[in-house]
Amino acid sequence: MKFTATQIAGILGGEVVGDPGAEVDRLAKIEEGTAGSITFLANPKYTSFIYSTKATITIVGENFQAEDDLSTTLIKVKDPYTAFSKLLEYYNQVKLNKSGIEQPSFISESVSYGENLYLGAFSYLGEQVKIGNNVKIFPNSYIGDNVQIGDNVTIFSGAKVYSETIIGNNCVLHGGVVIGADGFGFSPDADGVYSKVPQIGNVIIEDNVDIGAGTTIDRATLGSTIIRKGVKLDNQIQIAHNVEVGENTAIAAQTGIAGSSKIGKNCLIGGQVGIAGHIHIGNGVKIQAQSGIGRNIKDGEMIQGSPAIGYSEYNKAYVHFKNLPKIEDRLTKLEKKQSDNG
User: Fold this and answer.
1) In degrees, to the nearest 5, what angle opens at C-alpha 283 toward C-alphas 280 and 287?
2) What is the tens place of the pLDDT at every residue in 246-301?
3) Active-site residue among 241, 278, 280, 320?
4) Deepest in the core among 27, 53, 93, 99, taking most CB within 10 A?
């Protein structure tokens, strides 16, 4: 789909300097711009590229003044970076703006759905599924029985949403996500033989949650595994049964959270963090990557290490750890000197 400089300026509230009819159909970096693309200049260190870029349109700051000839049409805005981000969002909306029900797909007779549904081919909607308005479910997705999905939800290809799951408004589930699989519940008998503990709870995902590709969130044994509003989950995260993740917490890739742990609001958790079961993590906690959490964490703490300790304490200890070979060498020399003097 092509857009003119005039149309883009209207979207961004900008001013066209150059050809108002210039057309573009893709986005590019300023140093990689080609004919038919639009780019932006926000960082002054890239200014030289505006005189050589082949991009048809370039978004610049409202105070930009060219010091040489330009071949690109300018759109002047207050904040080029914010404007380009807005354009990316608009582009993504246009690209994903699909509607209708593709075939083959399966929809149970008891399913209800709102306006502007997109259901991709080879998707499955189980019994008593309820879907809101403007929902997009891409091909090869599975939605189990009694699932509830709010408005403006996007579920990308290959996602699996097990029965009884509740998903709020404005959520995004990326490809390969599995929501509501059984929690890891097994009970050994006297001979060490494991028996399955039925997992009969569900998963609740509140509004404005983003879930990255390949992430899994297990259903509760009883009650609910809960992802509170505004949570952002990276790719390949494991969240076990009966976990609760507080509002606006962000968790990076490959983190694993064991059963029944509670994480507070506005936490930042780095990649490859391991959190043991039945742990309580307070609000505003920052956990550095690859940390191992085996104790409760108070509000506002910043921690690192495995097992994790205070962030500043860890950094001080690490200095000594790096110097252990030198320290050992010094001790060896002192021992030898003492022995020689003895």
Assistant:
1) 75
2) 999 999 999 999 999 999 999 999 999 999 999 999 999 999 999 999 999 999 99
3) 241
4) 53
